[in-house]
């Protein structure tokens, strides 16, 4: 990735980290009108940054969060002894004469912090495989997929606009947002040969469709009563859950 693209991803990640805090802080300090103003500004800034990444830098399907958090356990480097002896794996391992089982020799045992249960060859293979997965370029998007990703990026702004036109108690913003989400996923479903990160992102977006059951006005009309009934049922008849469910 180029330096400008990395900066865009960083700013996008910062916005996603602070948007809820900014919304709550603005509402507490200046009231409801300022709260909606900061929501619109943040969503507009996020949409602009994502469109720049999509159309200018050809970033493909964008994940949330934009910068994947580092798994320090998986990215842990090899022990220096392993690195020195990586060229001669036979010196690090011992093969049982009868069982043919490969075990690590006592001389090349790493420190407790970097110890693992696989052989050095398995460790090197898994690390190289993870590095390849992380460094895979984004899948090129055609016109249909670019439109689908643009719909997904613009959906929060269109939802806010529909809330301003029809109000928070109307079904139209809920339906519009759901239709845009489903349309985007349907258009992206034809895309093949996605890398691991992009497949995980599409699965995440599909699972997030369940949140529509918890969004007003669907929640107020249908979900709330059933969820509260289930919680009361658990509180009354399942020992130990009453404290949590109440």
TrEMBL record:
Residues 74-141 are annotated as: Disordered. One of its GO terms (cellular component) is peroxisomal membrane. GO terms for biological process: peroxisome organization. Its main location: membrane. Keywords: Peroxisome, Peroxisome biogenesis. The keyword Electron transport does not apply. It comes from the Eukaryota. Residues 122-133 have a biased composition (Basic and acidic residues). Residues 74-91, 105-116 have a biased composition (Polar residues). It is found in: Peroxisome membrane. Transmembrane segments: none annotated. PANTHER family: PEROXISOMAL MEMBRANE PROTEIN PEX16. Belongs to the peroxin-16 family. This is Peroxisomal membrane protein PEX16. It comes from Eudromia elegans (Elegant crested-tinamou). The gene is Pex16.
């Amino acid at each position: 990735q180029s330096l400008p693209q990395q900066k865009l991803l960083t700013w996008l990640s910062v916005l996603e980290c602070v948007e809820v805090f900014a919304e709550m802080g603005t509402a507490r300090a200046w009231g409801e009108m300022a709260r909606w103003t900061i929501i619109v500004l943040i969503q507009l800034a996020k949409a602009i940054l994502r469109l720049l990444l999509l159309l200018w830098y050809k970033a493909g399907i964008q994940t949330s969060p934009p910068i994947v958090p580092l798994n320090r356990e998986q990215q842990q480097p090899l022990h220096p002894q392993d690195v020195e002896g990586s060229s001669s794996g036979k010196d690090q391992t011992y093969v049982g004469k009868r069982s043919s089982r490969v075990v690590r020799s006592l001389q090349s045992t790493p420190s407790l912090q970097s110890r693992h249960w696989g052989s050095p060859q398995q460790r090197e293979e898994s690390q190289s495989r993870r590095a390849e997965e992380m460094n895979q370029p984004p899948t090129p998007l055609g016109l249909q997929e670019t439109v689908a990703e643009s719909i997904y990026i613009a959906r929060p702004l269109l939802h806010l606009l529909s809330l301003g036109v029809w109000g928070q108690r109307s079904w139209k913003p809920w339906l519009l947002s759901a239709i845009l989400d489903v349309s985007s996923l349907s258009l992206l479903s034809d895309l093949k040969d996605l890398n691991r990160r992009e497949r995980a992102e599409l699965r995440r977006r599909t699972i997030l469709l369940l949140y529509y059951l918890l969004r007003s006005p669907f929640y107020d009309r249908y979900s709330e009563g059933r969820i509260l009934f289930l919680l009361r049922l658990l509180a009354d008849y399942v020992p130990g859950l009453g404290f949590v469910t109440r």
